[in-house]
Amino acid sequence: MKQRILVWDLPTRIFHWTLALSFAGAYLTAESERWRDIHVLLGYTLAGLIAFRLIWGFTGTRYARFAEFVRGPSAITRYLKSLADGRPEHHVGHNPAGAVFVVLLLLLGIASGVSGWMVLEDSGGEWLEEVHEFFSNAMLAVVAVHILGVIVSSRLHGENLTLAMLTGRKQGEAGQAIPSPRPLAGLFLLAGLLGFWGWSVYDAGTHAETARSSLFGSAGPQEKDEDDD
Ligand code: HEM
Questions:
Q1: How many domains does the chain have?
Q2: Mean pLDDT calculated for residue range 42-63
Q3: CATH number of the domain that 103 lies in?
């Protein structure tokens, strides 16, 4: 009998919502010199979150594991066909089509993070900034399709998937539930995030008088009050 069961562990939920916020914040602060440090901080946060998710994809609970949701073309085609036939296959974790966007978001997050870091280190010219911008815009486009997919999927399956990503609970059989939300790993992730932000603020403060912070690259304090609007 179907009931509400625990599907998304705490680290996956914390990862998701902090990733969404970091991406939104980094994207919105990308064009302004005044918000440059915040942009860099959120970029590092995004990269760190993805690094965590890559590890969690092999060590996390059942539905967080790549082996559970990364499928080949035949599973994706079968799922899409079931949608077209009006009898959508129900998947307790990510459905095969949604999983394609999850993988794309992780790959584009890595590409945006690495290219952003290279821009910060001045290891390329104008073209590298273009590449960084391209990856970030591609990520925005995939996020838009991801959100649309979540809305359509929620309607088709009669289940609020956004709420499920908050509570961790979805429709399923009792035997399909994960045994624990893994609260300690969730706290570890939160502590890591808070520790990193705290250290960044401290680092920026101690280097306020010099032209180079260890984290934010070569932005001098003289640049910080300028806005390039
Ligand atoms: C209001 C905005 C958003 C909503 C409502 C939303 C909703 C969701 C939902 C419901 C899922 C689970 C899908 C399923 O049941 O299979 C999910 C997964 C995911 N979303 Fe979003 N999302 C949003 C924004 C974003 C953004 C901005 C990003 C990336 C920058 C993102 C990246 C991901 C990733 C990577 C997963 C897979 C989670 C995992 O397995 O770790 N989402 N999202």
A1: 1
A2: 98
A3: 1.20.950.20
Is 161 inside any structural domain? yes
Does 148 map to a domain?
yes
In a domain, 184, yes or no: no
- The residue ranking higher by pLDDT, 221 or 196, is 196
State the distance from the centre of ligand 1 to the C-alpha of 64, rounded, in angstroms: 12
Name the residue of 79, 146, 162 whose CB sits within 8 Å of the most ligand 1 atoms, as the mutation to test its pocket: 146
Residue type (1 letter), 110: I
The burial class, CB within 10 Å (0-12 / 13-18 / 19+), for 89 is middle
- Confidence tier at 211 by pLDDT (50, 70, 90): low
pLDDT category of residue 209 using cuts at 50, 70 and 90: low
Query: Which residue's structure tokens are 């399709």?
Result: 145
**Within-domain flag for 76:** yes
Ligand 1, CB within 6 Å, residue ranges: 12, 15-16, 19-20, 23, 53, 64, 94-95, 98, 102, 105-106, 143, 146-147, 150, 161-162, 165
Domain that holds residue 148: 2-176
Q: Contact, 98 vs 153, CB < 8 A?
A: yes
pLDDT digits (tens, 9 = 90+) for 214-225: 677 654 433 444
